[in-house]
Design a protein that fits this description.
The complex is a heterodimer of chains A (368) and B (276).
Chain A (H helix, E strand, L loop, with lengths): L3 E10 L2 E11 L4 E5 L6 H9 L6 E6 L2 E2 L10 E4 L11 H11 L4 H15 L14 H13 L5 E5 L7 H18 L2 E6 L2 H7 L2 E6 L2 E6 L1 H6 L4 H6 L6 E6 L1 E3 L2 E6 L2 E5 L1 H4 L4 E6 L5 E2 L4 E5 L3 E4 L4 E5 L19 E5 L11 E5 L5 E4 L5 E2 L1
Parallel strand pairs in A: 3-8, 3-9, 6-7, 7-8
Antiparallel strand pairs in A: 1-2, 1-4, 4-5, 9-10, 11-15, 12-13, 13-14, 15-22, 16-21, 17-21, 18-19, 19-20, 22-23
Helix pairs in contact in A: 2-3, 2-4, 3-4
Chain B lengths: L4 H29 L3 H5 L13 H9 L2 H32 L5 H13 L2 H14 L6 H25 L3 H9 L4 H12 L1 H16 L3 H7 L8 H6 L9 H26 L10
Classes of the chains: A alpha+beta (368), B mainly alpha (276).
């Protein structure tokens, strides 16, 4: 096990810079998740860490050792690939032991460690089968077995669960979490799935267009997003955004949302004249509250114990962030309500202004 | 999908017709070999001889140096396949995996070499081999056939390597292999069906050659390949077509045996299970 230090690593293909200078200190035993939409540079960063792609600049240290220019096999890392990358011509036993064999480990030791890894991952029964005779979940376990058997300094995982069905994904997510708890190996995990990121990570690195947007633990990301992108990316359904002009009077600064005048601390605004207010769907409540307004739902989706209520946000609605929700549906309120609720039927909603997030309309940075 | 009886009839009818078209020359070769010369010249021809002359095969085998010709063809083909596969595995892998400046153009240039007819290349090749004093040696065939085979096999293998996920090599490199080690230990075993198909194709190309053998070896009877040897069986005034056909059957047998041996490797799907 070791800490990982990434200092100003960047990557360009010709004039196209796919990864802007990237710096990150990963503590020994930490579980770091790189998350972001397709093309954000997260997989490129992981491949540079593994030595499968050369960096255009910067330095990587694994423990005390600089590994920037070392071959993948000399870095003492293990990697789990999105498509498992099991060797199809070898049995499960040979697949798991391949890395040890390449390092000249004695046969008896290979056998002992393969059996131990197989026992941990519960694939002992399949040791003499070939990958094609295994289910998706079993293949994923074998891929994990190949990684843990070497007892490397760090695990790198490139979207390892994205080929599994939803149920198995949840199961394997928990298993990887438990494996990390048990082995305590420093892990860098890449995913585009924010739920994986939020549930597994000690810290999450959110990336967009090759640039780190925020590095924080999951709760901080959710509660204190640094910018509009992070606010829109984290949370499902995504945060609602509305643009609002700042009104300044003798009584102080304020904005108007859904007809409610909401006082805002001038110090927080940094002189901004227009802000983007963000409110999470779960922060809307049914009935009157501190800021109350009436809506007519354009769509109601029932999830049993709760409902997703879509309504028109008017001209001030901002389609920001990279949330996968359909912006054309309008704003969304996530209400804990199991009773009947019809589209087009008047509803009264409210929210607590203290739960509003404010962002600069120009820089899109959070105003705190 | 369920087929109607009419669709089944059309399908099987087409298959049988195509199989008959393809197999008829083979059947006719065999009929010619076991017919007498008199039967061969009669009209209308008989589709099976009244008195099958199976002894023609033994006669040809004993009277003509068929084993030597087959051995020469085999040596030339094995040499050509070995040389071509070494070159085209490395070239095909490089074209598939590495982005080299001008790599695509280089790949196409290799392929254009195959577009030139053998009869065009035979003259400069003859000149080169004569300057090196190689005319009459089987090595000329190994080298000449390789120039024909390598362009095609390089592209065949490039296409096959393209289908093998790069992650397999990346996993092998993370596991401690060098790039060359990853190719040898992981990519080549996975590419076995592709290698088998390509080798068979290369073998057939060399085995079927006549023009190069005729040009480079005609004055060296000890180096004659089977195809060249058979053409010498035509007499000045009469030709025993049954004997020529019997010799042709001997030439066809090794290819059929090799195909039967490689057939199990030709079946794809070895990569099944490597990925999701």
């Amino acid at each position: 096990m070791a800490n990982i230090s990434i200092r100003n690593v960047h990557k360009s293909y010709g004039a196209h810079e796919v990864l802007k200078p990237f710096s990150l200190e990963i503590a020994d035993g930490e579980f770091i998740v790189l998350v972001g939409p397709s093309g954000c540079g997260k997989s490129t960063m992981l491949k540079i860490l593994a030595g499968l792609e050369p960096a255009s600049g910067g330095a990587i240290h694994l423990g005390e050792r600089e590994v920037t220019d070392l071959a993948p096999g000399d870095r003492d890392i293990a990697m789990v690939f999105q498509n498992y990358a099991l060797y199809p011509h070898l049995t499960v036993r040979e697949n798991i032991g391949f890395g040890l064999k390449m390092r000249g480990t004695p046969k008896a030791e290979i056998e002992r460690r393969v059996l131990e890894a197989a026992r941990i991952l519960e694939v002992e029964k399949y040791l003499d089968r070939r990958p094609k005779d295994l289910s998706g979940g079993q293949r994923q376990r074998v891929a994990l077995g190949r990684a843990i058997v070497r007892q490397p300094l760090a695990f790198l995982m490139d979207e390892p669960l994205s080929n599994l069905d939803a149920k198995l994904r949840v199961h394997m997510r928990a298993e990887i979490g438990a494996l990390h708890q048990r082995l305590g190996v420093t892990t860098v995990y890449v995913t585009h799935d924010q739920i994986e990121a939020m549930t597994m990570a000690d810290r999450v690195v959110i990336m967009r267009d090759g640039v780190i947007q925020q590095i924080a633990d999951p709760d901080t990301l959710f509660q204190r997003p640094d910018n509009l992108f992070v606010a829109g990316f984290i949370g499902s359904p995504g945060m609602n955004f509305l643009s609002a002009d700042v009104e300044r009077s003798a009584g102080g600064a304020s904005i108007t949302l859904f007809g409610n005048r909401i006082a805002v601390d001038e110090a927080r605004l940094s002189g901004a004249s227009t802000v983007i207010a963000g409110i999470r769907p779960e922060h809307f409540r049914l009935g009157e509250g501190l800021a109350t307004f009436a809506i007519r739902p354009s769509l109601v989706e029932s999830l049993g114990s709760e409902k997703y209520v879509y309504f028109d946000g008017g001209e001030h609605m901002v389609a920001a962030g990279e949330s996968e929700d359909d912006k054309s549906k309008g704003l969304i309120a996530r209400l804990a309500h199991s009773g009947p609720m019809a589209e087009g039927e008047g509803l009264v909603l409210s929210f607590d202004p203290a739960e509003l997030h404010l962002f600069d309309a120009v820089s899109e940075k959070a105003l705190r | 999908m369920n087929r109607t009886p009419l669709q089944s009839l059309a399908l099987y009818g087409t298959v049988i017709l195509l199989a008959a078209l393809i197999l008829f020359p083979v059947y006719w070769l065999l009929v010619t070999a076991i017919s007498t010369s008199a039967e061969l010249s009669q009209l209308p021809p008989s589709f099976w001889p009244d008195d099958a002359q199976w002894s023609t095969f033994a006669k040809v085998w004993e009277e003509r140096p068929i084993p030597l010709w087959l051995l020469n063809s085999m040596l030339a083909a094995i040499g050509s396949v070995a040389l071509s596969m070494v070159v085209s595995v490395l070239a095909g892998y490089a074209l598939s995996r590495f982005s080299i400046r001008g790599g695509h153009s280089l790949g196409l240039f290799i392929l254009t070499a195959k577009m030139l007819p053998a009869t065009l290349l035979v003259i400069p090749l003859f000149s080169i081999f004569r300057n090196f004093g190689m005319i009459g040696s089987l090595w000329t065939l190994v080298l000449a056939h390789s120039t024909l085979i390598i362009p095609f096999t390089t592209w065949m293998l490039k296409g096959y390597f393209d289908t093998i996920p790069r992650e397999l090599e990346q996993a092998a490199m993370v596991d401690g292999c060098s790039p060359m080690g990853a190719m040898v230990r992981v990519v080549l075993p996975v590419a076995t069906p592709g290698l088998a198909a390509t080798s068979l194709y290369a073998f057939v190309l060399s085995w079927a050659d006549y023009a190069y053998a005729r040009t480079f070896l005609v004055n060296a009877p000890g180096s004659w390949t089977a195809n060249l040897g058979i053409t010498t069986m035509r007499g000045e005034y009469t030709t025993d077509w049954n004997e020529i056909s019997a010799a042709a059957v001997f030439v066809a047998v090794p290819i059929i045996v090799i195909y039967l041996f490689l057939e199990r490797y030709l079946v794809g799907g070895l990569t099944a299970g490597a990925e999701k």
